[in-house]
Amino acid sequence: MESSCAEKKEPVTEPWREQVVELLYWRDVKTTGVVFGASLLLLLSLTVCSIVSVCSYIGLALLSVTICFRIYKGILQAIQKSDEGHPFKQYLDQEVALSNDTVHKYSDVVLEKLNKTIEELRRLFLVEDLVDSIKFAVLMWILTYVGALFNGLTLLILGLIGAFSCPIIYEKHQAQIDHYLALVNNQIKDVVGKVQAKVPGLKRKAE
Questions:
Q1: What is the DSSP string of the chain?
Q2: Which among 172, 171, 156 has a CA at the least distance from the CA of 43?
Q3: How many whole angstroms separate alpha carbon 166 and alpha carbon 162?
Q4: What pLDDT is attached to residue 110?
Q5: Low-confidence ranges of the chain (pLDDT < 70)
Q6: pLDDT of residue 129
Q7: How many Cβ atoms sit within 10 Å of the Cβ of residue 41?
Q8: Within 13 A of 82's CA, how many CA atoms are on the CB side?
Q9: pLDDT for the residue 140
Q10: Which of 45, 110, 140, 206 is deepest in the core (most CB within 10 A)?
């Protein structure tokens, strides 16, 4: 009984999470390069053309490849007098529909995250904790300057580059980065502690 309970409690890592980690850490350089390059090219294209134009161009390019390949295989089969069938038959026979279990599973996850976000925003805007609300206000103030310098698409491009570069950089220089992060964190804690000690009403409820 104990062994069965222990087995049930073991966390199950979802395959898609492992795939994302492998991509971000460049475990397979070719696959990561293709994904990163295609994503970056898509975002850069959106800076020049509208999303409708970009989607149309991608659709036309994909259709051009598949139609040409379909005609090529048809001509080749006619010349060789072979009966190989449709060149994309194995892909056409694959099941692509989402199951009800999958939809419910991820919809529950999204709903849970959404509810937590709404609760956290309510807590911040209604000033349940004065320190956290002030920190949130400072963050919003900083974002006003970020928004003045960059638009949303530029931030997405920078975020994509950071997502594919920061993990591998941190993995290679973890000791040095952790050291400097600890120093910065200690400095921030010291400043926050001094402000809380001098300004009345800023101390947390736990204190």
A1: -HHHHHHHHSPPPPHHHHHHHHHHTTSSHHHHHHHHHHHHHHHHHHHHS-HHHHHHHHHHHHHHHHHHHHHHHHHHHHHHT-----TTHHHHTS--PPPHHHHHHHHHHHHHHHHHHHHHHHHHHTTSSHHHHHHHHHHHHHHHHHHHH--HHHHHHHHHHHHHHHHHHHHHSHHHHHHHHHHHHHHHHHHHHHHHHHSTT-S-TT-
A2: 156
A3: 5
A4: 92
A5: 1-15, 199-207
A6: 85
A7: 11
A8: 11
A9: 93
A10: 45
Q: What is the pLDDT of residue 136?
A: 92
Calculate helix-pair angle for 29-48, 51-80, nearest 10 degrees: 130
At residue 190, the pLDDT reads: 83
Q: CB-based contacts of 204: which residues, under 8 Å, 6+ apart?
A: 129, 131, 196
CA angle centred on 36, ends 30 and 39, rounded to 5° = 135
The closest of 154, 162, 161 to 39, measured between CA atoms, is 161
**pLDDT score at 192:** 75
pLDDT of residue 124: 92
Q: How many CB atoms lie within 10 A of CB 120?
A: 13
What is the tens place of the pLDDT at every residue in 168-204? 999 888 889 989 989 988 888 887 777 777 766 555 5
Residue 63: both structure tokens together? 């259709």
The neighbour count for residue 112, using CB atoms within 10 Å, is 10
Question: Buried b vs exposed e over 160-190: b needs ≥16 C-beta within 10 Å?
Answer: eeeebeeeeeeeeeeeeeeeeeeeeeeeeee
